[in-house]
């Protein structure tokens, strides 16, 4: 863990949080539990303030890469479903056994897994969190429709790659537009497709305007669902680590509406509100801000913009641009085998061992403790927990003020913060008004 602040160790923070909870001897909250709450509070603090900006340099022989998997990435995704189960078990006052269950009959590991998987996949969809390049998609000559695997949630881009001839990047459009503006009786033609459509097609398919007249394949940038959860085996969540607390609240909101024994309408409503708040933050995350190619500053722009203004840019993967092309969160294309440098919002550095230092300044430490205390008090329920909500509200308000202070450092900070959402702004794909409640 990178260390910049060396004034406060985790062991001291645990002790101070325990004192706040009037549990200095760790009878009701163990040190392991308090460690999780401090770690999650630091992650939540980063989501609310965008504090931990960092630089990352890499070079890759691949055109498309994910900051969630690149070696050494400050945005490496490391948390599994077991991490989430453990925190949920603590917050429900059940034995913290991770992917197994030794607790009461109110819950089970199957119920936890179902709730976590449902909300995890919703987060992936809403946040555009798991884009990948899907290659060698089979096509049938003289056939307009193509079928995709059931792991595909959305299609952002399609490229037609004939066996002979040059690849063609297809423009996403409504197929009805082809009826209005392309040649008459376009459905009777065959040749080289120009557009692909999703709006009038069944799920897991896309249509092209002109069916290919020869053999080849498609290549697509798609949003994939997360891996199937199978406790007790730990499965990577494949969402940004800093948003694991959002998943915890989303799953808890579902678990606490299970009839009859587990129902707790007040805390369920609170969890669902925190989950909705977290989704809004997820859609604003400035995961990338600045870019360089071989030490020269370049623009970071969306897949949509690159295809529109630099057609077939990826036919020369080593020399296009120079430009960094951004898709969903953490997914980007950059010239191959070049020196790539980006400025991004890194994961919040979280302490693990008692001697590790908390990476937070003295002015913000009290806010982090407030957030940790809110996590810890959840299992108390009743009036004691409700009193903590005032503390949490104060912490969130302070985080908003800190976010405003950090934005004031530059005249164009708002532009930096928006670059990570360039693709979603160019190619709108989800309306938050339609989220599950």
Write a brief caption for the model.
The protein has 437 residues and is of the alpha+beta class.
Distance between the termini: 37 Å
How many distinct helices? Answer: 12
Kindly estimate the percentage of residues that lie in beta strands according to DSSP.
15-25%
Walk across the major sheet and give the strand order.
1-14-10-11-12-13-2
Shape: globular
How much helical structure, as a percent, in the residues? 25-40%
Features:
disordered C terminus, globular, 7-stranded mixed β-sheet, about 425 residues, alpha+beta, single chain
Explain what you see.
This protein is α+β, with helices and mostly antiparallel strands. Among the domains are: 105 residues, no CATH class; 94 residues, no CATH class. Helices cover 36% and strands 17% of the residues. It has 12 helices and 14 strands. The chain has a 7-stranded mixed sheet with strand order 1-14-10-11-12-13-2. A hairpin with a 5-residue loop joins strand 5 and strand 6. Helix 1 packs across helix 2, helix 4 packs across helix 6 and helix 6 runs antiparallel to helix 7. The radius of gyration is 24 Å and the shape is globular. The two termini are 37 Å apart.
Q: SSE layout and pairings?
A:
Blueprint: H1 10-20, H2 31-49, E1 53-58, E2 64-66, H3 81-91, H4 109-127, E3 131-138, E4 145-147, E5 152-162, E6 168-172, H5 175-181, E7 195-197, E8 205-208, E9 216-224, H6 244-255, H7 265-282, E10 290-293, E11 296-302, H8 303-309, E12 323-326, E13 331-333, E14 340-345, H9 362-377, H10 382-407, H11 413-418, H12 422-426
